[in-house]
Amino acid sequence: MKLIGSYTSPFVRKISILLLEKGITFEFVNDQPYSAESSAAQYNPLGKVPALVTDDGDCWFDSPILAEYIEQLGIAPAMIPREPEAALAVKQIEALADGIMDAALTSVREQARPAAQQSESELLRQREKINRSLDYCEALIRDGKIAPDAFDLGTIAIACAIGYLNFRRVAPGWCVERPLLVKLAEAHFSRESFARTEPPKA
Ligand SMILES: N[C@@H](CCC(=O)N[C@@H](CS)C(=O)NCC(=O)O)C(=O)O
Description:
Blueprint: E1 2-5, H1 10-21, E2 27-30, H2 40-43, E3 51-53, E4 59-61, H3 63-72, H4 84-111, H5 120-142, H6 153-168, H7 179-189, H8 192-195
Parallel strand pairs: 1-2
Antiparallel strand pairs: 1-3, 3-4
Helix pairs in contact: 1-3, 1-6, 4-5, 4-6, 6-7
The structure holds glutathione.
GO molecular function, one term: glutathione transferase activity
EC number: 2.5.1.18
Protein name: Glutathione S-transferase
């Protein structure tokens, strides 16, 4: 199968990690969705990555759908629990982490605009979303809703979101007073799948 995406995208990283952890062979097709040469729209009318083209030629897009598709292949280790309510909880954590990625991406795009056109209030709005969501994740671990040694679709997504915050230096103080989240992120970053998908050092 082919994964279409950019090495800097946290959404793409999440999917690469799922494939690597399950030992699924794939071809990575590098595509920069913001460049004029991007062919992302050929796979996803929204022009976003990641997209996945299966060996049968089917094309799937939007990372939660890709994650679900990969899980449905039935290859161990399971990254989504089988029990429906537990599965929903993990997918909700994924949705929250994806929202952190969206807010970080919006901040990066805003900061890339000429200084005079940047909106301070928009940057603040996005920063608040990120901070509230990180607090929520810290509380999930503190309250035992995420086990300290958990490794599943939800925690992979959280670690990818944090990796993107670090990479783009968005919310640089995110680790202050979130010790459980720091531990969770460090445990994930030490895995080979995370090492192999680190964004390029620009
Ligand atoms: N909801 C999408 C978000 C994907 C996304 O925003 N990807 C960014 C790269 S990090 C993108 O392709 N942006 C191009 C654009 O918005 O035109 C997913 O989970 O796959």
